[in-house]
Amino acid sequence: MAARIYANDFKEKVLDSQIPVLVDFYSDSCVACKKLAPVLCELEEDYEGKLNIFKVNTNYDAELAKEFNVLSNPTLVLFKGGKDVDKQIGAKDYDDLSDWIDSNI
Predict the structure, then answer these.
(1) Catalytic site residue 41?
(2) b/e per residue, 31-46, with b = 16+ CB within 10 A?
(3) Residue 28 to residue 34: CA distance in whole angstroms
């Protein structure tokens, strides 16, 4: 299961990462976020060592959501080399997300 990170460790875990990072901006009350969770678990297993996956709760870290222009949950932001390179909004299936990841990393 993707680890939850916070504003105070975002730079270290995401921006300073040597490998690409997928960040799931989510909310505990979001139904689509709950549907996405098992897909992210599967991606985490399949991309181990090639991609880190973390979660940011937009209710508690609203400043991060604002900084990366997250307007709805779930929003997935892909980071590479410390920069946000692409974004997906809404729950997606495994194939769509793996294709998206592969085309960006």
Answers:
(1) no
(2) eebeebeebbeebbee
(3) 8
Instruction: Please report which confidence band the pLDDT of residue 24 belongs to, taking 50, 70 and 90 as the band edges.
Output: very high
Distance CA 96, CA 11 (A): 27
Dist CA 43 CA 95 (whole Å): 10
Q: What is the mean pLDDT of the chain?
A: 96
Residue in 14, 33, 43, 97 annotated catalytic:
33
Q: What is residue 1's predicted lDDT score, i.e. its pLDDT? A: 83
Which is catalytic among the residues 2, 30, 32, 37? 30
> Average of pLDDT values for 49-63?
97
Q: Mean pLDDT over residues 11-23, rounded?
A: 97
Instruction: Compute the distance between CA of residue 60 and CA of residue 26 in angstroms, rounded to an integer.
Output: 10
Contact call for residues 84 and 68 (beta carbons, < 8 A): yes
Q: How many CA atoms lie within 13 A of 83 on its CB side?
A: 4
Q: With 0-12 CB in 10 A as exposed, 13-18 as middle and 19+ as buried, what is 87?
A: middle
